[in-house]
Write a structure and sequence with these properties.
The protein is mainly beta. It contains two helices and 17 strands. The strands form four sheets. A five-stranded mixed beta sheet has the order 2-9-8-4-6, with no helix packed on it. Strands 1-3-7-5 form a four-stranded antiparallel beta sheet, with no helix packed on it. It has helices at residues 2-14, 222-235, and strands spanning 20-22, 26-30, 37-46, 52-59, 64-68, 72-73, 78-86, 90-100, 107-116, 120-123, 126-130, 138-144, 152-157, 162-170, 174-181, 188-196, 205-213. The chain has two domains: 18-116, Immunoglobulins (Immunoglobulin-like); 120-235, Immunoglobulins (Immunoglobulin-like). The N and C termini lie far apart (66 Å).
Length: 236
């Protein structure tokens, strides 16, 4: 008899259903390479017989923000919690904790996941010469990583201090940009923009850079390392 009571108690405890029922507690958002934020919503319904109030909606970090139209919901009424997450290339995942005045359930944990695909490998993301160097031609290689072919439809430079030529090694997959400074007598810089035909509805543009830097900015200088990191992030 005691064993039966214990099992019955466990079944009853396991059968408690939250009054605020979410359609899904996980939100997976997929973006494009240039996206910095992604937004979505968690939809829910008050399936209980009394009204329920959302007391708090807390995010695990400042990179995620939420919104709620109102706090109190009548029986059978539905609502949603909007959420926006800051993203960069790869997978970003954060938690959102929801607290209500429901006595049988303290909190609900929501998961928001932002996925930004990596479409291209740019190697290197920037090339450089020092002032006084020989104006030797250098290469920037682009390799597209998607299953679908991606064609570069045009290449532009924001300054005319460098000569450049795009070579197609394998259409839709591999390209090379040949870059040569017009002069290395003084500092100069340029950003190249590669316009593609993918995806068809929102074609993406990728970037790479070239610079002629003063001799004092050697390859191991703090500024040079910072610049390399920043340009690599931009190129992605």
């Amino acid at each position: 008899m005691r064993a039966v009571l214990i099992i019955t108690g466990l079944l009853l405890a396991g059968g408690v259903v939250a009054q605020l029922q979410f359609e899904s507690t996980e939100l997976e958002l997929r973006g494009l390479p240039n996206d910095t934020t992604l937004s979505g919503a968690y939809r829910f319904t008050n399936i209980g017989e009394t009204e329920i109030t959302v007391k708090t909606v807390k995010t695990s970090c400042g990179c995620t923000t939420t919104g709620l139209d109102k706090k109190t919901y009548a029986p059978g009424e539905s609502g949603e919690i909007s959420a926006t997450i800051k993203v960069r290339e790869g997978v970003s995942e954060k938690k959102i904790t929801v607290t209500t005045d429901e006595p049988s359930k303290e909190t609900t944990t929501l998961i928001i996941r932002g996925i930004v695909p990596r479409y291209v490998d740019i190697d290197p993301p920037y090339v450089k010469w020092q002032v006084g160097d020989s104006a030797k031609r250098k290469k920037i290689r682009l390799k597209f990583l998607t299953d679908a072919d991606i064609n570069i439809t045009s290449v532009t430079a924001n300054k005319d201090a460098f000569e450049y030529e795009l070579l197609t090694l394998k259409a839709g997959r591999h390209y090379e940009l040949l870059v040569t400074p017009v002069s290395t007598k003084k500092s100069s810089s340029v950003q190249f923009s590669f316009v593609t035909d993918y995806p068809p509805d929102v074609p993406q543009t990728f970037h790479a850079s070239a610079r002629v830097v003063p001799v004092t900015q050697g390859p191991n200088s703090l500024w040079d390392r910072f610049q390399a990191t920043a340009l690599d992030w931009i190129a992605r």
